[in-house]
Design brief:
By secondary structure, the protein is mostly helical. The protein has 14 helices and no strands. Helix 8 runs antiparallel to helix 11. The longest helix is centred in the first third of the chain and has 33 residues.
Length: 324
């Protein structure tokens, strides 16, 4: 089967997987619902389970899909930007900045919009700081950007550790849950879904240029790519998507690192196909992981970030073993 035809088939299968993962998330829980009840609730029919589907499970499932898609897409973009297969959405300190903001809000007694607002503000502050320090006098390189991000992330990690040390005991549980990733408090997934849609629509038109950038900046420039402008665009889009995902669901690891690798093994490194496939695969993975997190030891709900790490670590080690 030709490579492009196989890639399109994989995209179709991933789209089906996305629909199936959402259906499982809506049907599975402490109260199991038959599929026809789920469909009836979604179509507006009056059913006893309508409130469970529409008010509890649907917002959480859509938020999980949006955050998974955002993280996977941001990870794929970061790997192109830094030309480093180990890059993920958190490598440039965005998650650390969001964590400092969110934990500050919790220490101040804020909730809901206050946590989301300070979290997003912290992520943006980290993004601006990394960009400003890495750009310097204009000699922006992948190595300089990566080192700056690692240093900023380490600094944010130290601040977070200090906050956890000084936090009152009654607030530590909520702070740790946020740091490990949690979708249980998401009430409105529209912001994350909107950013995901805008992000993929903004980046697909430059997917051909990203293919050239992945081969090296000098080669891309020789073929007519405005490398500096493209790098800034990729950095801003990936950072904003990471900030929105972390603000919505907390720090959820390994989705942005592992998913692009898995997709790349199947359909290759053509960004025109890799990016939408990563969105579908990342969204499906996080929805299924969150469904497992809230049902595996019910009624106790596990942080979804724990599940993604337990899945991601062995998968990534397997991928490393195949490459060596």
């Amino acid at each position: 089967m030709p490579t492009r035809r196989r890639a399109l088939l994989v995209l179709a299968l991933l789209a089906c997987l996305s629909v199936a993962s959402l259906a499982v998330a809506l049907a599975v829980g402490s109260i199991a619902l038959p599929l026809h009840d789920v469909v009836a609730a979604l179509t507006g029919a009056a059913t006893p389970s309508g409130a469970i589907v529409l008010d509890l499970r649907l917002p959480r499932a859509l938020a999980g899909f949006a955050c998974g898609g955002l993280l996977a897409l941001a990870g794929a973009l970061m790997q192109v930007l830094l030309r480093n297969p180990l890059a993920d959405p958190y490598v440039l300190g965005i998650s650390g900045g969001a964590g400092v903001g969110a934990l500050s809000a919790m220490l101040l007694g804020l909730a809901g919009f206050g946590i989301a607002g300070l979290s997003f503000g912290g992520a943006l502050a980290a993004m601006v700081l990394v960009f400003g320090l890495a750009h310097g006098d204009g000699s922006w390189t992948q190595t300089r950007l990566l080192l700056t991000g690692v240093v900023v992330a380490a600094g944010c990690g130290a601040v977070i550790a200090l906050m956890l040390t000084l936090a009152p005991e009654q607030k530590i549980h909520g702070m740790l849950f946020w740091l490990m990733g949690d979708l249980s408090l998401v009430a409105d997934p529209r912001t994350a879904l909107t950013v995901l849609l805008v992000g993929i629509l903004a980046i697909l038109p430059v997917a051909r240029e990203l293919n050239l950038l992945a081969r090296g900046a000098e080669q891309a420039a020789a073929l007519g790519v405005a490398v500096s402008r493209l790098r800034r665009l990729v950095y801003v889009i990936a950072s904003l998507m990471t900030a929105v995902a972390v603000t919505t669901a907390g720090s959820i690891g390994f989705v942005g690192l592992v998913v692009p690798h898995l997709v790349r093994l199947v359909i290759g490194n053509d960004q025109r196909l890799l990016l939408p496939a990563s969105v579908l695969a990342g969204g499906s993975l996080l929805v299924l992981a969150d469904t497992l997190a809230r049902t595996i030891v019910a009624p106790i709900q596990l942080p979804v970030g724990v599940l993604t790490a337990l899945i991601g670590v062995p998968v990534f080690l397997y991928l490393l073993g195949r490459r060596t």
